[in-house]
Amino acid sequence: MVATLHPEGISPTEKPLLRASYQVAYQIAKLKKPHTIGEELIKPCVLEMAKIVLGKEAEKKLQQVSLSNDVIHNLIIDLSDDILEQVVADMKDSPVKISLQVDESTDVSNCCQLLAVVRYVKEKKVEENILFCQSLKTTTQAIDVFNNI
Q1: Is the distance from CB of 100 to CB of 131 less than 8 angstroms?
Q2: d(CA 33, CA 27)
Q3: d(CA 84, CA 76)
Q4: Which terminus of the chain has fewer Cβ atoms in its 10 Å neighbourhood, N or C?
Q5: pTM of the predicted structure, to 2 decimals
Q6: Cross-referenced PANTHER family, in alphabetical order (predicted)?
């Protein structure tokens, strides 16, 4: 997506287009669909619906929403980074100590995986979130797990 940069960032006229791209990226990630579905299926359908229901002007405006594979990929990374920041902030704001559960395993392809789940209190309610899931480059020995945390 090409946006006009102002001192504050993206111009106000481009913000709805960017928000629309984020909404589509969120749904694609949530439904675990291939990133190319935005460009190959969703956008053509939306453009056709806009042209039929709202007219050519709406179709022209929606044509500016970028849903390419690379854009969707980058937006999903932005969304996941934002979620991680929110979880970390919530953990820091927790009125009680947090609980961290770590599990390691080796899958059938002999790849070592490390998963960390965190529990904390937010607004008098216990929250549970995956903090991270990453491959271990070495072994699943305690020292390697510790060094990755």
Answers
A1: yes
A2: 9
A3: 12
A4: C
A5: 0.76
A6: EPM2A-INTERACTING PROTEIN 1 (PTHR45913), SCAN BOX DOMAIN-CONTAINING PROTEIN (PTHR45913:SF22)
